[in-house]
TrEMBL record:
Entry superkingdom: Bacteria
UniProt GO MF annotations: ATP binding; transmembrane transporter activity
Protein's name in the database: ABC transporter ATP-binding protein
Transmembrane region(s): 21-44, 313-336, 357-379, 399-419
Membrane topology listed for this record: Multi-pass membrane protein
Domain MacB-like periplasmic core stretches: 20-272
GO cellular component: plasma membrane
Matches recorded under Pfam families: FtsX, MacB_PCD
InterPro entries in the cross-refs: ABC3_permease_C, MacB_PCD, Macrolide_Exporter_MacB
Residue ranges of every copy of the ABC3 transporter permease C-terminal domain listed in the record: 315-426
Intracellular or extracellular location(s): Cell membrane
Keyword Membrane: yes
Key words, A-Z: ATP-binding, Cell membrane, Membrane, Nucleotide-binding, Transmembrane, Transmembrane helix
């Protein structure tokens, strides 16, 4: 019987085509508006590395001076060079990496290509395995290159294709900031969203094309493309070496633990480290260490702001307005068929069967509206992508969002159809038959 009612619902779309088109379009517009906002929120609030997000941590130490103009309870988001190197040498972790942003002119050595400005990061070799970076060819540089800061590099697939064409870039040389680097690996397209590994001092939507050994960047005194916080007592020594010896925080740091349960052990290590450093006259303030996993780090950096959440709620408010309009249109459509309902009731159809028929008819409207709404969602995201490259990076609709859009449309149409269907069930057969 339900299949028969569904068939009747499909046929009913041809009745009052203008009214039906208005209902479908109204529902589709509401679904598209809400799903477009929800898609962006979903991407930015999702887990970018779910297989190990509970084992990757950002440590923070509070090395701010005891007396400062605007004291904060939050420790600096980054580490000093001294602390980062101490962690690299002794931290009880499986893998660890320091990270700074770098930039420079890249010369492919080809006469037909002029040098181009490129963005990159300086990291330790553990970076690639820590964050499950996929390689198209080659791999990370060796431990010896990592330790001595060799002139080696990992580059993105897009850069490799642009510079070397179809040829394999591994083993080839390119010139970056006036120095020759040998390519050890080419990264396949890798764009985790949110861009959790570098949330400070960089655009969270632009992905780097050049990866160099951290010690190489230090040896060549590459400028950090990011935040440098020198909220310290006294003057900072001039020059790059002065920055490295200072209490300025400018290095992002990540550690990977063997198990999420090792968090307490690492937190104890941080406390012990700061306690020892206090004996050397550092860390004047009370213990105030922090240790964030990936999702905690995203929340702490407020990647999904209140504005994004408000925009999503407003979009769903617009969907609610659309539902009110659909309810009115369904009432008009079902009221126009009061005579048909009266005849069915007079022939013995119980109210529950009338309720099923017309609720399924409302569901058919939701199915059609959902399909159109999904198409409109893709269109809206495409238009938004053309206006903003950042939004283009986020505008990814996966099967979860497709299912959500379709389910939302169907649920919305059924909800909108409850009142009109209930009203249709109240039709009194005797009154309708007398009026015919």
């Amino acid at each position: 019987m339900l299949a028969y009612y569904f068939t009747l619902g499909v046929r009913s779309l041809r009745r009052n085509p203008v009214l039906t088109a208005l209902m479908v379009l109204t529902l589709a517009v509401g679904v598209a508006a809400s799903m477009s906002s929800l898609t962006l929120l979903y991407v930015m609030s999702g887990d970018p590395i779910p297989q190990k997000s509970d084992r990757l941590f950002v440590p923070q130490l509070d090395n701010a001076p005891l007396q400062q103009p605007n004291p904060s309870d939050e420790p600096p988001a980054q580490l000093t060079y001294r602390d980062a190197m101490a962690f690299k040498a002794s931290a009880p972790s499986v893998r660890e990496t320091a990270l700074i942003g770098i930039s420079g002119a890249l010369d492919s050595g080809r006469t037909d290509q002029a040098p181009t400005p490129e963005q990159g990061v300086a990291v330790h070799a553990d970076f690639f395995e820590m964050f499950d970076v996929p390689f198209r060819s080659g791999g990370a540089w060796s431990e010896s290159d990592d330790a001595r800061g060799g002139n080696v590099a990992v580059i993105s697939a897009s850069l490799a294709d642009r510079v070397f064409g179809e040829a394999d870039a591994v083993g080839k040389s390119l010139r970056f900031e006036g120095r020759d680097y040998t390519v050890t690996g080419v990264i396949e397209k890798w764009e985790p969203l949110p861009k959790f590994y570098r949330l400070i001092g960089g655009n969270v939507f632009d992905f780097e094309d050049v990866f160099l050994p951290f010690n190489n960047a230090m040896a060549n005194q590459m400028s950090s493309q990011g935040s440098v916080d020198c909220n310290v007592d006294g003057e900072v020594e001039p020059g790059y070496q002065g920055l490295m010896r200072s209490e300025c925080t400018w290095i992002q740091y990540w550690v990977e633990l063997a198990d999420a349960g090792d968090r307490e052990q690492f937190a104890a290590y941080l406390d012990d480290y700061v306690t020892e450093q206090k004996k050397l006259g550092r860390f004047q303030r009370p213990l105030n260490n922090r240790l964030y996993d990936v999702m905690g780090w995203l929340e702490e950096r407020e990647i999904v702001g209140d504005d994004s959440r408000l925009q999503t709620w407003l979009a769903f408010g617009f969907l609610l307005v659309c539902l009110v309009n659909v309810i009115g249109l369904l009432l008009a459509k079902f009221t126009a068929r009061s005579g048909e309902i009266g005849v069915r009731r007079a022939l013995g159809a119980p109210r529950r069967e009338v309720f099923k028929q017309y609720l399924i008819e409302a569901g058919v409207v939701g199915i059609v509206g959902g399909v159109l709404g999904i198409a409109l969602t893709f269109g809206v995201l495409e238009l938004m992508s053309r206006q903003s490259e950042a939004i283009g990076t986020m505008a990814r609709v996966d099967w979860v969002m497709l299912a959500t859009a379709f389910g939302l449309s169907l649920a919305a149409s059924l909800l909108a159809g409850l009142l009109p269907t209930w009203r249709a069930c109240q039709v009194r057969p005797a009154v309708q038959l007398k009026s015919q």
